[in-house]
Structures are given as structure tokens and as C-alpha cells.
């Protein structure tokens, strides 16, 4: 199983990219959101992958984070949601948006994805509402992007003079979306430890996170507890 592709981005199509891995090119299908986040052609890139195997077809799908890959796998367990529909949903909402839509029962948000009708959107909500919280709880540690390896053009045929080792590039700071996903996951875990049910906790965190996008973990927990308190 191919779990990750790392190399040089050779080409971008409408919904596919070609990544060169030391002379072997892999074509990956990606969402619109992922395509927009990729570097220019010729630069190093890395994507986590999921392989679709059929009798007459082999397709690789690429994802910038493991959490997005896991959402893709979960979405395709819904009857009628194939790889194309899953990529459309993720491309429209992103993994955090999918989690919020399922938690809040927002079928209209899912329906905003190209090719997804109202019946299919409602089915996604109904079938995944009980499964979403466990994946949301893992969001923080799975939201880190894949790291691209150094692009090597070719191996020298003869020994070359020693070169000064280049300084290792600094790791990219986590994106705001990744920080937010981590805070949501930590808040969800804290509520679960306090005895709240997964669905109630996930719904509360999704609502207060949407209303307070800049809130840190402590604030999310406090706001969620206030929302969950008996009235």
C-alpha cells in the first residue's frame, strides 16, 4: 500500500498532479482545496495517499494531512459516496468543515459540494453522526502536513568534492486551521474525560468553535461546558 508520495511537483492538471519521485512519476487526484495549497511546479511536495483499486482501475488520491485522508476514508463508507463525491465534499468544506457539518446536522453545507444532492447529503449526516466524534478527537495529532523530502535530480557517477552541508530548513509553523483543529480535539477530549457523551460534546465544541474562531483550548472548554450545563 502506498501511504505517502514525496518528490518534485512536475505538473498540475485540473484535478490531478504529477509528482516525480527520483524518476518515477505518480499521478494523484486531489481536491480543489488541496490543489490551491500546492507549491509551484518544480518544487518539493509531499502528500499522503489512498489507493483506489477496481477491476479495471487504479487511482491514487492525495491529501495534505492524515486527518483529511481519514475523513476521505470515512466519507466513502457512506452508501452512494464514492471517491469523487468525497473529494468534492472535502474540497468544498475541508476536514474541519466536514466535522462541523456532520456534528451540527448541517446537510445544506454538505450539499454545497458539486454533485452532492440533498438525499446524499442527508445520508452522510445520518450515517456519520455517531462516527465523527472519534475522528474529531484525533484531529490535533493528525492535522500536521506531510513533510517533503529533498528533491534529488540525479546521483553522481564519480566522487565529488565534499560540499558544506546545508542547514536544515526550519519546520513550517502550524497553520491556523491546524491549530484550530488541535484546540477542538483537545477540548473534545477534555469533555469526554468529564463524562459527556461524544455526540453532545462534539456538537458543543463545534458550535462554540464556530462562534469563537480565535478561542484557545481553555476558552473552548469553558464555553462548551456553559452550553452543556442544564438550564
Automatic annotation (TrEMBL):
Residues 181-231 are annotated as: Domain III. The keyword Chloroplast does not apply. Residues 1-62 form the DNA helicase Holliday junction RuvA type domain. Keywords: Cytoplasm, DNA damage, DNA recombination, DNA repair, DNA-binding. It is found in: Cytoplasm. Residues 1-64 are annotated as: Domain I. Residues 185-228 form the Holliday junction DNA helicase RuvA C-terminal domain. InterPro entries: DNA_helicase_Holl-junc_RuvA_I (IPR013849), NA-bd_OB-fold (IPR012340), RuvA (IPR000085), RuvA_2-like (IPR010994), RuvA_C (IPR011114), RuvA_C_sf (IPR036267). The keyword Ribonucleoprotein does not apply. Has three domains with a flexible linker between the domains II and III and assumes an 'L' shape. Domain III is highly mobile and contacts RuvB. Homotetramer. Forms an RuvA(8)-RuvB(12)-Holliday junction (HJ) complex. HJ DNA is sandwiched between 2 RuvA tetramers; dsDNA enters through RuvA and exits via RuvB. An RuvB hexamer assembles on each DNA strand where it exits the tetramer. Each RuvB hexamer is contacted by two RuvA subunits (via domain III) on 2 adjacent RuvB subunits; this complex drives branch migration. In the full resolvosome a probable DNA-RuvA(4)-RuvB(12)-RuvC(2) complex forms which resolves the HJ. NCBIfam families: ruvA. Belongs to the RuvA family. The RuvA-RuvB-RuvC complex processes Holliday junction (HJ) DNA during genetic recombination and DNA repair, while the RuvA-RuvB complex plays an important role in the rescue of blocked DNA replication forks via replication fork reversal (RFR). RuvA specifically binds to HJ cruciform DNA, conferring on it an open structure. The RuvB hexamer acts as an ATP-dependent pump, pulling dsDNA into and through the RuvAB complex. HJ branch migration allows RuvC to scan DNA until it finds its consensus sequence, where it cleaves and resolves the cruciform DNA. This is Holliday junction branch migration complex subunit RuvA. It comes from Pseudogemmobacter faecipullorum. The lineage of its organism: Bacteria, Pseudomonadati, Pseudomonadota, Alphaproteobacteria, Rhodobacterales.
Amino acid at each position: 500500500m502506498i501511504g505517502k508520495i514525496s518528490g518534485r511537483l512536475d505538473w498540475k492538471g485540473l484535478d490531478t498532479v504529477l509528482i516525480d519521485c527520483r524518476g518515477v512519476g505518480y499521478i494523484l487526484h486531489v481536491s480543489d482545496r488541496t490543489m490551491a495549497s500546492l507549491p509551484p511546479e518544480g518544487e518539493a511536495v509531499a502528500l499522503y495517499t489512498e489507493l483506489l483499486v477496481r477491476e479495471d482501475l487504479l487511482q491514487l488520491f492525495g491529501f495534505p494531512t492524515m486527518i483529511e485522508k481519514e475523513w476521505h476514508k470515512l466519507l466513502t463508507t457512506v452508501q452512494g459516496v464514492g471517491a469523487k463525491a468525497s473529494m468534492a465534499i472535502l474540497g468544498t468544506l475541508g476536514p474541519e468543515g466536514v466535522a462541523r457539518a456532520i456534528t451540527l446536522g448541517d446537510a445544506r453545507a454538505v450539499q454545497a459540494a458539486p454533485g452532492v444532492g440533498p438525499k446524499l447529503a442527508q445520508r452522510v449526516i445520518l450515517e456519520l453522526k455517531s462516527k465523527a466524534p472519534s475522528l474529531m478527537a484525533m484531529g490535533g495529532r493528525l492535522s500536521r502536513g506531510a513533510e517533503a523530502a529533498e528533491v534529488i535530480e540525479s546521483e553522481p557517477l564519480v566522487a565529488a568534492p565534499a560540499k558544506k552541508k546545508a542547514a536544515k530548513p526550519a519546520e513550517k509553523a502550524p497553520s491556523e486551521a491546524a491549530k484550530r483543529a488541535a484546540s477542538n480535539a483537545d477540548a473534545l477530549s477534555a469533555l469526554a474525560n468529564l463524562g459527556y457523551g461524544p455526540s453532545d460534546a462534539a456538537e458543543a465544541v463545534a458550535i462554540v468553535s464556530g462562534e469563537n474562531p480565535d478561542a484557545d483550548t481553555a476558552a473552548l472548554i469553558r464555553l462548551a461546558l456553559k452550553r452543556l450545563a442544564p438550564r
